[in-house]
Structures are given as C-alpha cells and as structure tokens.
Amino acid sequence: MNRGLYISTMGMLANMAQLDTISNNLANADTTGYKKDEITFKAYLKKEFRNYDSVDIKRGKHVGYMETALVADETKPIISQGQIVETNNPTDFAIFGDGFFKVERNGKIYYSRNGEFKRNQEGYLVTSEGDYLLDSNNKHIQVPKNFTVDESGNIYNGTQSTGQKISIVNLKKPSKFGINLFTGTEVVSNNYKIIQGSIEKSNVNTLKEMINLINANRAFNILEKSVQTQDYMTGKIIESAQRI
C-alpha cells in the first residue's frame, strides 16, 4: 500500500512539473522569438526481477525491470522555426533558418532569436532591455538612420557598406537563460537568411499546448484520487489492526 502511495505521489510531482512547463509556454505564446520548452522524464529506482528456477540457482536468470517511479528529468528548449511576420520596422530582424543573434549584457554574451531591436541615442542597435547587438567581430553595431541589411547580415548606408555584419551563430546544446536568452557553445551557422523589417513569432502551437495542458491536468487528478483512496485504505487497515 505504501509503495502504491509513493508511486502515485511521485507521478503527481512529475505532472506538476509538466503543468508548469506547459503553462509557461502558453504564457509566452506571443513573446517574439520565444522557443517552447519540453520536459522529459525518466524511470527512478528500477527494480530487477530474476527467475531462480534456472540452472544458476544462486544468481538466477534476469527477467526484466519494473519501474518503481517516474520523475522529471530535464527541460529542453525546442529550437524550431516560428512564423515570420512583417513589421516594416527597419530595426526589426527575423532569422529564417538556423542560428541566433549575439547580444551583450553587462560584458557577457548571450544568444537570442528575438530580433526586435531599436536604435538608441548613440545609434547603436539594442534590445528593449538595453543589450547590444553584436557584429561578427563581437563589436557593438552602430548604424545610421537610413540603413539596410542584406540576407547575410551585411549592413549598408545607402549603397555603401559600413564594414559591419550582424553575427549569426548556431549553438551546441543550447540552454535557456531567463525567458528569451540562451547560453551554449558556438558553432558556425550557414543555413540562414536575415529578413529586415520582420520578426519571428514564438514556435508555440497554442491549440496543441492547450490539449497537453488538459491531458496533464487529467492525469494529475487521477493520481490525486489514487493517493486519496490509498490513504483512506491505509487508515482502514490501521483501524482494523488496532481492534485485534
């Protein structure tokens, strides 16, 4: 009875983690460049079963394992393409394909798919939080009022190149830092196009996430009832034992 209560409780904790992940995805469905998270699970405390009717009486024959609990393993971002939406704002950029923008915050480099930038008073391209967009030499990008960017990220003042190029890199094993920034090991990205005057929306499928939320909530409720039932039965067993 106690083992069943333990398994059900562990299942509830796993479902709570899943509900938190799905809720966070839905909350950021309209966040530019947001990449949804998915949670993975693993078996915890596997119990081995052996058959001792075999020739080797001492060791027995391996039959299999029984999973005694399921726990949340890790949360991974899903780096898939979001919808490209035109804004006609020259400081907005969308990446079509692979890669991330490089931005600098307090001397540290982070990565993002959010291409909503603005031109500050000094003419530098920055995020809404004030992070600087970096070029291929990890320098802050300063642009004139009337500038253009080609699909490779090269920046022009009219027809004249400014000598700067927006840095786009891929990441090996990207990990989220906050809501919309990433950390990871840089690798070369060649399969991309930069689209000026557009942004990339989140890759959250709201309908699918709502279905996942309903299913996870149902599973949680079932496990909750299981815990209540087992708790009730345990109480009855204790009462019966006390009467003996």
Automatic annotation (TrEMBL):
Major subcellular site: other
Pfam family membership, one: Flg_bb_rod
Domain Flagellar basal body rod protein N-terminal: start-end pairs: 5-35
Flagellar basal-body/hook protein C-terminal domain span: 196-238
Keywords assigned by UniProt, alphabetized: Bacterial flagellum, Cell projection, Cilium, Flagellum
Occurrences of domain Flagellar hook protein FlgE/F/G-like D1 (ranges): 94-155
InterPro entries: Flag_bb_rod_N, Flagellar_basal_body_rod_CS, Flagellar_FlgE/F/G, Flg_bb/hook_C_dom, FlgE/F/G-like, LlgE_F_G-like_D1
Compartment annotation: Bacterial flagellum basal body
SUPFAM superfamilies on file: Flagellar hook protein flgE
Family in the record: Belongs to the flagella basal body rod proteins family.
Protein name stated in the entry: Flagellar hook-basal body protein
Organism, scientific name: Marinitoga aeolica
